[in-house]
Design a protein that fits this description.
The chain is α+β, with helices and mostly antiparallel strands. The protein has 11 helices and 7 strands. Helix 1 crosses helix 3, helix 8 runs parallel beside helix 10 and helix 9 runs antiparallel to helix 10.
Length: 267
């Protein structure tokens, strides 16, 4: 079955952290990705209605830029990708501390508490009890801005859950490796996306490659390497991904995800 690039992915892949992208360029890359123009127009309208995007000018003379809300969301994706590669490279060492975050809301706001906990779990936390989440890093800067006023946070180097306190065993209890691995494409799948077809444009292949990584990293708790089995398949997958990514990015006419891994590329 032919892999599909989502219209929204095309739009977001061209947005810089600051600045704008011309609408004609969005439609050109969409065509390279095998998309009709109408679905892309619809994706743009939906992003505008969601408050993530603003459009200036009409038709093909217009341009798009991310709103502060949209830029923050895209920045969180970039930061998670940077964190994953930094941990793979051994640039970030775990200090042995567990970070606890509790959602402090009134008794009338249970739905709000549930949304905060879901957000914390999505970005790497593990639920301990109602309203309480633990992570190997401080999630305060990663949680959605609207939720930060409701957080109470603490850290400790002494944590026991169901009688388990050894760090690696505790990590496996809280974040089962089998569940993490189930969300990752195999290295073979990554290579397939990077070499989908000799006739496919580099832009299309780069977009498919980016999607494969985003889908996995968005649901990866990104645990420190000292708490993971060795070898760790996601690290091997990301190495294969990076080799394909660098090759494709060198051959694209348009700058796909212009803010990804720039500092690491120059390091």
């Amino acid at each position: 079955m032919t892999s599909r690039v989502a219209p929204r992915t095309v739009v977001e892949s061209l947005l810089p952290a600051s600045g704008s992208i011309a609408l004609p360029d969005v439609y050109r890359v969409s065509a390279m990705a095998g998309l009709e123009e109408q679905p892309v127009r619809l994706a743009i309208r939906r992003l505008i209605l969601a408050g993530d995007l603003s459009q200036h000018g009409r038709g093909r003379s217009g341009f798009l830029e991310a709103t502060p809300t949209g830029a923050a969301r895209l920045s969180r994706d970039r930061e998670r990708i940077d964190l994953a590669f930094a941990q793979d490279a051994g640039d970030i060492k775990w200090d042995g501390r567990w970070h606890l975050h509790a959602a402090r809301v009134s008794g009338q706001s249970r739905p709000l508490q549930d949304r905060i906990v879901r957000n914390l779990v999505t970005i790497g936390g593990a639920p301990l009890s109602m309203g309480l989440v633990v992570c190997t890093r401080d999630l305060t800067s990663e949680v959605a801005d609207d939720f930060r006023p409701y957080l109470a946070s603490a850290s400790s180097d002494d944590l026991s859950v169901h009688g388990v306190s050894e760090p690696r065993a505790l990590a496996e209890l809280l974040w089962p490796s089998e569940q993490i691995l189930a969300r990752y494409p195999t290295t073979a799948d990554v290579i397939k996306h990077g070499e989908e077809s000799s006739t496919a444009s580099p832009e299309r292949r780069a977009l498919l490659l980016a999607t494969s990584l985003l889908k996995a990293v968005r649901f990866d708790p990104l645990l420190p390497s000292t708490l993971l089995p060795s070898p760790w398949p996601p690290t091997e997958m990301r190495l294969a991904w990076r080799a394909r990514w660098d090759d494709l990015r060198s051959r694209t006419t348009f700058d796909i995800y212009p803010d990804w891994l720039r500092e690491r590329a120059r390091a």
